[in-house]
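Notes to self after the call with IL:
- keep both proteins in one doc
- input above output, always
- annotate only the second one for now

Protein 1:
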Amino acid sequence: MKNPPEKPNGADVDHASINRENARRSTGPRTEIGKKRSSLNSLRHGLTGQTIVLPSEDLAAYQAFHKRFFDDLQPSGMLEEQLVQTLADCSWRSNRARAIETNLLTLGQIEAEGAIQANHPEAAAALAMAQTYRDQARALANLSMLEQRLSRQFEKALKQLRELQDERRKCEDSEMNHAAQLLRMHQERKLPYEPKEDGFVFSTDEIQQHIRREERLEDAEHAHYARNAAA
């Protein structure tokens, strides 16, 4: 039976330790391209590996764009957040498609400069534009189909979001009205009330604020009827 080969210097080679030491010494990507690729790791979808922000695009601009959607639409819960994410990404990609279309036309005109002979600059520009549409017909058609698909996705997600938010707000209004009734009853009986005991997520202050707002609205409605009656 052959003996196993000896390790160098008679010592065991611990590859795991070597890898950990190399990782500790690593300073990360050093080139601009490497840094951009590294910065996009958190934006890659786990299932498809799709990257929303391209290396040539501004990550901070995307994040600010994304934040505006969430600030304006105020999603609550995972489903609403996912729909708002879809709206933001569809809009970002649609804007990119429009920019690519403009860049294609601009590039075509630049490349056609001097190649088209015309007696007037505007005529030369018009012919260069026509040639660009002819040469880039397939690319422009693909961009148009992409924009249409993104538009349909956007409209579908927006419709679903509105339906979810309408249903949620109706439920919240109903729950708040029930909580207000219970709080009023406890106050009339001079008893303490803890909304959580009845399964409500509202605080006592939030319920009190709702009650005061409803009372002001009721007073305003009575004042409106009184003015109409006196007129």
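Protein 2 (the one to annotate):
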Amino acid sequence: MRIGLDLGGTKIEAVVLAADGTELVRRRVATPRNYADTIAALSALVHEVETEAGERCSVGIGIPGAITAATGVVKNANSTWLIGQPLAKDVAVALDRAVRVMNDADCFALSEATDGAAAGAASVFGVILGTGVGGGIVIHGNALQGPNLIAGEWGHNPLPWPGDDEREGAECYCGKRGCIETWLSGPGFARDHATHTGRTSSSHEIVAAWQAGDVVARESVDRYVDRLARALATVINVLDPHVIVLGGGMSNVPGLAPAVSLQLPTWVFSDSVHTTVVRHRHGDSSGVRGAAWLWPHVESS
């Protein structure tokens, strides 16, 4: 059996999966706001679910960042108290076993490629469209980890083929302007709507208004679909994946995947587009399930 841990900014979730992917146990606790207590919480949660499962399990952890191979410490983490800390080593010591740690977007992609919406596909690009925009790549069932640990980070490339009203773009937290994330994240979608309407609304409110027939909201959704198609076209031009799986809160916009698929031929450098774009199967559970699947699908770090 396998334990997956999803270490988020507000909660830590644990799941125990059987060999066939059946979920046996699930628990969650609040995420402590300091490093020592986070290690203790991870260890306690593993022992709790493992006791209920009745078997010693492998442990995988998804984090909002990455483990630097040369030093073994965390980098690029939204949970800033993890940065510079040897998380994998300290959890391994606390649990008296090896653990595997990977970026949470990579865990999402791995989950959907293993037994989710892209199960069986030779190559998968997993997309997170949430508070931020991230991604992960799975090739023949294995999560791709490049030398810089940024494989799939499409959100920090510029929006392609920008119109006159899109040039320069909003400032991104990475220090650049016009990143895909500033357009396709939930906050970016809401900001674009506000720019065009002068009305401040949440992404959920805009989508609800669109579904109720609001013409202005429909225009905001149409712009979002167009930008997502352009951005994914560049991924297809470079990676040419068999399946793209959409995840994160914005992936729940009704009809998003087929709407984007219809626009891809306009932008992809091919006379036909055979990449399938689908919505996630496991939703918010994909991150923690992908962490559980780390053991058979990646090399130990």
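Annotation: The chain has two domains: 2-103+290-297, 117-280. The longest helix spans residues 215-239.
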